[in-house]
Each structure stands twice: as C-alpha cells, then as structure tokens.
Amino acid sequence: GAVVSQHPSWVICKSGTSVKIECRSLDFQATTMFWYRQFPKQSLMLMATSNEGSKATYEQGVEKDKFLINHASLTLSTLTVTSAHPEDSSFYICSASGGITGANVLTFGAGSRLTVL
Amino acid sequence: AQSVTQLGSHVSVSEGALVLLRCNYSSSVPPYLFWYVQYPNQGLQLLLKYTTGATLVKGINGFEAEFKKSETSFHLTKPSAHMSDAAEYFCAVTIGNEKLTFGTGTRLTIIP
User: Chain A within 8 Å of B96 (Cβ-Cβ)?
Assistant: First the structure.
C-alpha cells in the first residue's frame, strides 16, 4: 500500500510551452501533497503544499504564476510549469501524506524530469 | 526553524565494511527524523524514521539509526555494506507538520 504515481517520468519541451505533471495516490486518499524540486546533485527543495479543494501554499521565492498547482481530488494533484524556460529544467518530485505508512510519513513519487530546450 | 546538516557529500566504503552516514539536526522542539534513499532518476524511499520512543530505530535493508538528543544527531549505520546500497541518502527533519526539511544528501559509493 501507499503508492504514489507520477506522470510523465520525463518530458522534453520547447521553451515557451507549458507542461503538466500529475501526481496520484493510487491506494489511499491524500488530503495534502507536496511538490519538490531537485537540481542535479542537490537536495530537495519544497516548492509548495497542495491541499485538496483549496489553494496551494507556496514557499518563499516560488512563483505562483509560473508553477500552477491544482489539487482537484483526494487522489490527484497537478503541477503545471507555464511558459517553461531552460532554467525550469529540473527533477520534480511529489509526495503525499496519508496511507498506511503512518502519520508524518510521506510517500514519494518516482519523480518527473523536465528538460526545456 | 529546523535544519539538517549532513557531513560528507560523498562517502566510499568497501563491500562488507561498516557504513556510517552522519546527520545532525537543529530544532527548537522535539523533532521527527527520517532517512530516505534515492536511486538514480527515482523518487525517495523511506529507510527509517524516529518520532518518539526507542531511540535506536531499525529500518529496511539492514540500516539503523540512533537518535541522540545530547548530540543532536541521527547517524545512519549498516554493519556490512552491499553493492546495492550505492545511492544518495537524505536525512530529513520535521516538527510534526509534514513539511520536511532535507539535508544536502550523501552519495554512498561501494567499492568492490
């Protein structure tokens, strides 16, 4: 149990286009999901907290209009990188709380690697 | 605010040798501490966690960690390294609100 699926696992797009990444909790309901960004050989930086049915809470320095987050259901959160540019290229990872792993334990997706040309 | 410091961005050990990955934390309230492992181009997998209770926690794949409040440490150990242990390891802390703060990671290399 407690599986989080991310799609796509990798995506290449042209500069100026928008890319949507999905994060699904497959076997549990996740009222809260988190989106992280990871640069090569660096740690994970929390971008935003996604709450089902309400607006996401963004961390300081993260552009809300650039990184649109929608948590429309208890099993799905989406991250849309709008008007992507090469500097947005990164590894994006989502996580969800809940499931059988217990309180305060997050289940992570496998990540989505975005390359903007 | 809480923070985590991982000493050593790269650690190399011989196969069969002891693995020791260091993690020190800073928190104004009792922390919850975690170790995660990340294989190339993959997400994070939980190795073990400390919330309350026993300070020595055992995790998957033979790893364990000990919470030492006096030293503000949560070092990860494994008695005998295996080739499959080669990966990136992250220590993380939270004060209970599920917003994890990660360390910068330690890349573990296993020498045959």
Answer: yes
Scanning A2-21 for CB atoms below 8 A from B yields: 4, 6, 9
Tokens of A69: 């987050």
pLDDT digits (tens, 9 = 90+) for B8-32: 999 999 999 999 999 999 988 889 9
Closest-CA residue to A30 (of A71, A69, A74): A74
Give the mutation candidate from A25, A43, A97 for the B interface (greatest B CB count, under 10 A).
Answer: A43
Tell me: the pLDDT tens digits for A63-73? 999 999 998 88
Please give the interface size between A and B, counted as residue pairs whose CB atoms are below 8 Å apart. Answer: 55
